[in-house]
Amino acid sequence: FGQWDISLMFVMLGAIAVAFIPFQKAIKNPKTLFNEQIQLPMTTQIDQRLIVGAFIFGIGWGVTGICPAPALTLIGLGHFEALYFIVAMLLGMFIYRVLNKGN
């Protein structure tokens, strides 16, 4: 394992700072600027599915160093090795849909 890169902490703090006010507004009035309803999750329960999903997501992010949205950006920048990640991500989404058809 290499040395921890503190710049990631600043990225996360910046993302939290930018998202904090819009999220607070959405909680109080769940509508878009065009007056469309926003469907916020109502459950606050931490269950096995949430833990397993977060674990798998974290492993994928840690192994590849890529988060889903930037993976698509990497393709646009010519980093075609991101296709491995995108294919695995789409396969995971497909497996989730197959396993949760009855839910």
Average pLDDT, rounded to a whole number, is: 85
Please state roughly what percent of the residues sit in beta strands, choosing from under 5%, 5-15%, 15-25%, 25-35%, 35-45% or over 45%.
under 5%
Count of distinct strands: 0
Structural class: mainly alpha
Uncertain ranges: none
Q: What is the number of helical segments per DSSP (H or I, 4+ residues)?
A: 4
**Measured on Cα atoms, how large is the radius of gyration?**
17 Å
Biggest β-sheet description: none
C-alpha end-to-end distance: 40 Å
What is the helix content? 55-70%
Q: What is the global morphology?
A: globular
- Oligomerization: single chain
Element-level helix/strand string:
HHHH
Itemize the secondary structure elements and their pairings.
Layout (H helix, E strand, L loop, with lengths): L6 H22 L19 H17 L3 H9 L5 H18 L4
Helix pairs in contact: 3-4
Report on this structure.
Helix 3 (68-76) packs antiparallel against helix 4 (82-99). The protein has 103 residues and is mainly alpha-helical. The chain starts with 6 loop residues before the first helix and ends with a helix. It is globular and about 40 Å long. The protein is 64% helix and 0% strand.
